[in-house]
Amino acid sequence: MKADDFLKRYIDIEAYADGEAEKALELLEECEGDLDDIILSVPDYHTKAAVSEAESEIKKRTSALSTALSALAIGAAVGVAAKQAKWLSKLYGFDKTPDDFSSFVKFTPYNGKDTIQSASDRLARSVRTAYSSAVRSAWAFGGSSEGAVETAGRQKKSFENSVMSDFETSIPSFAKFADLRTYEANSEQIRGYRCCATLDGHTCVVCGDYHGLFFSDRAKAPNYPLHNRCRCVLIAEVDGEPDVELPTYQEFVDSLSDEEQREILGKTRYGLYKSGQIKLSQFVKNGRKLRLDELDY
Fold first, then answer.
1. Measuring CA to CA, which residue among 174, 172, 168, 127 is closest to residue 23?
2. At a CB cut-off of 8 Å and minimum separation 6, what does 290 contact?
3. Inter-residue contact 253 to 261 (CB < 8 Å)
4. pTM for this entry
5. Are 193 and 214 in contact (CB under 8 A)?
């Protein structure tokens, strides 16, 4: 069954993305260590000149971080996309396989807004701002260099989460884009597209709402990823093969325990659903999860 093939394939891709994210964390931690050393190289920041010198070094080091992160992510995404196109063509028996993804990966937003480079630049700016602000604060309030390092370090967890999210979203996203480019190259063999979510405790109601829907027009199907770490895929249905059969999101939710349903839906939505006041499909409208005050019941 192609749905099983896809989900297994993307589990492997996500595991690979996790490994690349760990490499990115190492780059981040190395940068943070260097920034700590830069700040500590000055006993105190009683002069504006000392602050300016430190900020200059911080800017250089964070720029290098951005370059390293983008190179790592782009290399991984290009490789994954090329392999995915070959895998997909073999799975379906397609004649045409896109093979040049370098420019596509460099310049295409992977989540509708960020390219890999812009995401790397954004993270580097955040790190730069945190360390520069800590130095300026030490200068303004007579703090020590050790205190400045401690202040900047309070944001390290946020930086780590950002790196993990960026890598775990961008790399699988370009595999999905490779799917779409391969479908486009072989569109004469395709009759439509089926949305497929990974149904587990992390599946959001928006992804669940799209799950199983069929679109004969690719332009009307959702553009995955719908959010960071989105695990949904678009499966082509080709001429001469049966429809892709999937359990519905409703069936999945109903198979869960009350505790699991509450965890997925949230306390209030769970209560409304269990009491029969609202259907699962009413939690979503036009691909957006509705706020509680927007629900119609």
1. 168
2. 282, 283, 284
3. yes
4. 0.90
5. yes
